[in-house]
Amino acid sequence: MSVADFYAEVMARLGKVGIQAHIWTMPSEIENAIPFELDRDHAQYDAAMVERFWQALVQVDRLFKLFRARFIGKVSPVHFFWGSFDLAVTRFSGRTAPAPGGVTPNVAPWVMAEAYSHEVCSCGFWPGNGGYGRAAFNVYAYPEPAGFGDTPLRTPEALYDKGLGQVILPYDAVRQSPNPDEFLLGFLQETYEAAANLGKWDRQTLERQ
């Protein structure tokens, strides 16, 4: 079933129960996107891979929530971006940030301005997109403090990707670790500490002691 056929069927079924849903049908954060009602190029569904991806998301969600609980400042829920298809959680310093530059495909500039109106340190999980090309965890700070990309990390598989402006940890490194929970939480903590220390966040106030 193509995306167009799936979209048409979902809308038809909603209509049968009296729900008239009106959505913007252009996928966001994707270059060369095709509106849902016109997309007959994408028509694959691998149930086994979907099941494996769901199981990975369940575990990542669990660990992101543990990491989130250590912070008592403003912090987002663990949330899923349908455009870039990543799971993420973001901590805020409480200070305002300069307006972001650049363009995100099919995303209005005001959306990005609102998303980055305040200083953040965000971590996420990509299933294989995001510019890295493989399943990976990522951490970035906005605005990025000087020296963030040069911070020595204890996680040996972690690397700073200058093109992405993010610290990357391959998913396979976590999956193959003898203690995946401890391994990932350690990576998230040390990258957050690097961003917070270099950015001079008020950690005493923002963190659970």
Number of domains: 2
Oligomer: single chain
- What is the 3D form? globular
Helical coverage, percent range: 25-40%
Radius of gyration over C-alpha positions, nearest whole angstrom = 19 Å
Low-confidence stretches: none
Tally of helical runs: 6
Order of helices and strands: HHEEHEEEEHHH
Let me know the number of strands: 6
Taking all residues together, what is the mean pLDDT? 94
Backbone structural class: alpha+beta
C-alpha termini separation: 52 Å
Percent strand equals 15-25%
Summarize the main sheet: 6 strands, antiparallel
Spatially, the strands of the biggest sheet line up as 1-2-3-4-6-5
What do you see in this structure?
The protein has six helices and six strands. It has helices at residues 3-16, 47-68, 109-115, 171-175, 180-198, 203-206, and strands at residues 79-81, 86-96, 118-126, 136-142, 159-161, 166-170. It has 209 residues and is an alpha+beta fold. It starts with a helix and ends with a helix.
